[in-house]
Amino acid sequence: MDWDDLRYFVALVRCGTLSGAARLVGAEHTTVARRIAALEASLGVRLFERDAKGYSLTVEGERIVEAAYSIEDEIFGLQRQSASGPKGMIGTVRISAPPVFASSFLVPRLAPLRTSHPGIILELAGEYRAVSLSRREADIAIRMNRPEPASIIARQIGKIAYGLYGARNYLDHVAEELWTFIGYDEKLDHTPQQRWLLSIAKGRPLVFRTNDLASLRTATIAGMGLSALPRFMGDSEPTLERLPIDGSAASRDLWLAYHPDLKRSPRIRLVVDHLVDTVREYKGLLDPD
Fold first, then answer.
1. 91-157+262-282 against 160-251: fold identical
2. What is d(CA 76, CA 38) in angstroms, rounded to the nearest whole number?
3. Is the Cα dihedral 65, 69, 74, 76 positive or negative?
4. Is 267 helix (H, G, I), strand (E, B) or coil?
5. Which stretches of the chain are DSSP H helices?
6. 33 in helix, strand or coil?
7. Cβ neighbours of residue 31 under 8 Å, at least 6 residues apart?
8. b vs e for 235-272, b when ≥16 Cβ sit within 10 Å of the residue's Cβ?
9. Helix, strand or coil for residue 161?
10. DSSP codes of every residue in 220-250
11. Regarding the domain with residue range 160-251, which homologous superfamily does it belong to in the CATH classification?
């Protein structure tokens, strides 16, 4: 039995489906099935029951799953210790950040870092999901709420302010009493920017909903209605106008997190410092007021 087979086993336990496990480990679902079969053959036991809903552990699978988790933790611990070793400014740094913040704000401001330190390879994943820093799904995570668990190093590095925006053409041709509103889908009604938008709408329904911020921005530009957008997106779009509002606008805290095992890594420290300095330098764009 080798660790790779056990890694696929742990991924399938976590996800419950071949496709989910394949996405988690970055492989084809057929590869996951083959590695699970190889593990079962090497152990001489059946580890999973297979049905229409997916994969569930057998009694034999339940017996080894905790040991598999422990081995996984040890392996990832060794990888983190290796990443913090004496490689200097050479190696890969994986960053996870909200998609639009990653593409619109971070990417253009990572170029100077690459220019000054060509030995560093940057991987940037635009995603909302909670990533496991202990399993090195990312080295550094940027989120709009405090990342968990408490054992990781997390610090608030800034804020993202929101504004109420409409297309200039829309505002020129639609009377205020006929304004419509567009926003996130109902799963995101709990977010500060959505609650703020709904308070402005005062009971009027949202005529367009999406779970994608880029789509919301495009819909606003197209004149579908008024929306709450981050200031760094809305203020930079010449076809949009930010409307004056009564009271305070919505804002979100911006958090940066990484695993304590990586704090001695020169390249991780370099990228962390660059991200912190960048957010501070562009405070006037992210949080103008």
1. yes
2. 23
3. positive
4. helix
5. 3-15, 18-25, 29-43, 59-83, 99-100, 107-116, 168-173, 192-201, 213-221, 231-234, 266-281, 283-286
6. helix
7. 8, 22
8. bebeebbbeeeeeebbbbebbbbbbebbeebbbbebbb
9. strand
10. HHTTS-BEEEEHHHHTT-TTEEEPP-SSPPP
11. Periplasmic binding protein-like II (3.40.190.10)
Beta bridge partners of 235: none
Beta-carbon contacts of residue 115 (< 8 Å; ≥ 6 apart): none
- Tokens in use for 150? 């408490």
CATH of 91-157+262-282, one of 3.40.190.10, 3.90.180.10, 3.30.565.10, 2.30.40.10: 3.40.190.10
Residues 6+ apart with CB under 8 A from 113: 120, 122, 270, 271, 274
- pLDDT tens for each residue of the chain, 289 residues long: 566 788 888 889 889 899 988 888 888 989 998 999 988 888 888 999 988 888 999 988 888 888 887 777 666 666 656 555 555 578 899 999 999 999 999 999 999 999 999 999 999 999 988 888 887 889 999 999 998 877 899 999 999 999 999 999 999 999 999 999 999 999 999 999 999 999 999 999 999 999 999 999 999 999 999 999 999 999 999 999 999 998 899 999 999 999 888 888 888 999 999 999 999 999 999 999 7
Please state whether 263 falls in left (phi above 0), alpha (psi between -120 and 50) or beta: alpha
The backbone region for 270, taken as left when phi is positive above 0, alpha when psi lies in -120 to 50, beta otherwise, is: alpha
pTM of the predicted protein model:
0.72
Whole-number Å distance between alpha carbons of 5 and 18: 14
